[in-house]
Amino acid sequence: MRTFVLTTLICCTAIPAFAHESDDAVLHDITHLFDAATVVSGPEVVDCTLSGGAKTTCFSITVKPEPQSYTPGPWCPTSINDSAEKGGIWLENGQVNDVDGAFVANLSTFYDDPEWQFFDEATGKVRVTDTQEACEAAARPDVDPAYNNYCVQCLPEYLPDDATVTYVIPLVPQAATNDSPTQMSGSGVAYNGVRLDGPAPVQDILAAHTIAPFDDCGGHVNTHVGYHYHAVTDCLNDGPSVENHASQIGIAMDGYAIFAHALADGTTPGDLDACNGHAADGMSYHYHAGEAGGNAILSCLKAQSGCASEDPDAVCDASAMGRPPRP
User: Fold this and answer.
1) What's the DSSP call for residue 265?
2) CA geometry: angle at 163 spanning 162 and 167, to 5°?
3) CA–CA separation, 76 vs 87, rounded Å?
4) Among 75, 169, 245, 268, which residue's Cβ finds the most Cβ atoms within 10 Å?
């Protein structure tokens, strides 16, 4: 087996309560957490090296990056006459905007920049990346100039049928010297097996006069990461819940649970730290997802992260930093 160094995906982690359970109990809890995921193998206990160099015990689980409860999309409208049902959403200044035809037609005003023009004025047809080649040329930080002024979308069918991601996640969070940003590692993995990513590189996208919309569930596709979330919307509100607190949407890369933005009573926690975390209501430390419009599911990570890889046989060594995943 080869050693996996952080390159395209990085990873996620476990619920703090696991620290007080046997390995068998941990695996039982993890198995049920991912009941809604397309699990290919695992979970199983493995050795791992975390981002800060800690050598510890992790669980490994291999999943398909696809939700079971809905079909991802749509993303880009094809005409400036299309309604919101034909497109996804775009995040700007903390707001969630419907990417309908009117939004596309109004981009030059929205961004106060006359260079925005990715529809045919005569027909109203929107320029969309509608092939895998176009998707791969446009859905990257250095957008191919041929795809300036495009609505960028990649489709799930561009992925191989056997595409999987293997997450290697510490059973017990390991302290880090400093909080770490999520741009490199992502934020975690949702209970349905879909990656909870770091912030989308919005400035790179906008610089090419492109947008890469998310679907109404906050997700989109690239051929390196597959389908993944940049925002948490109501689509993830049916996860396991803690009475009088919130529903759990997944596991963070550093081992802590991630809960929904809002509490069960509809309010939001007022005591979150810089990473969106706190210890409250008799619960150990955990995170709450950021607001959907904020382009940050988590602001940072408190502990050392593990790994995620497209190679199910990779050995997790997250201590070397690699190139961040594409948007």
Assistant:
1) T
2) 125
3) 5
4) 169
